[in-house]
Amino acid sequence: MDYEIKTQGKFSFIEEGEGEPLLLLHGLFGALSNFSHMIEYFRQYNKVVIPMLPLYDLNILETSVGGLAKFVHKFVEARGYTNFHLLGNSLGGHVALVYLLKHPEAPAKSLILTGSSGLFENGMGETYPKRGDYEYIRKKAELTFYDPAVATKELVDEMFEIVNNRLKVIKIITLAKSAIRHNLGEELQSIQQPTMLIWGKNDTITPPMVAEEFQKLIPNSQLEFIDKCGHAPMMEVPGEFNEILHKFLVSLQN
């Protein structure tokens, strides 16, 4: 489905539905298509909001997890969202965590992490990214999922286009290094929001032990594993993912 991309000042975003805002943060190679199942499902219950994170547009000093967290803070303030649920996949989860740690006063009602970085992640490897090698990029895309067929040609084409743009590659590498350096560890004990961790049991990028460590460190957190599922559950098993998330959001209603 095509959604209207709205703008306000320097912000571009999608906003669909009514109700408590559900703010979605995508990962390093994230695209709106990652969340299409979620938008369709949750727009019936929530105002689903997806800001376009400026992965390639920040100056090089701001191209970091902290820089993206600052962007999210400004976006939330500009839009005046309150009582919102914050969900992040992969790097988006890391950004959500840093945002909440830096802004404990943020009006976020809950936090949802899926395949989040912030403690440990397997990167794309030292040889990454290989420009011009479509087959290599296709294999890397397939590693994101338990079922390689989820890495559609359209998805691989999007990644291939990114890694063949020299400036985008520099920004991607800078962000990936920033994520690895910015390990949150003990800081996570300061997270105040009720937190739901939804994790693929077959995630090879942020393996199940990472989810267990997050649960140990984040005070008010619960963990649900999804079997036969990789690093992006909301794409690979949307039905089960949406059901777990919906149940969690309903449990928080006053």
TrEMBL record:
It comes from the Bacteria. Residues 62-236 form the Serine aminopeptidase S33 domain. GO terms for cellular component: membrane. One of its GO terms (molecular function) is monoacylglycerol lipase activity. One of its GO terms (biological process) is acylglycerol catabolic process. This is Pimeloyl-ACP methyl ester carboxylesterase. It holds the Pfam family Hydrolase_4. Signal peptide: none annotated. It comes from Chitinophaga dinghuensis.
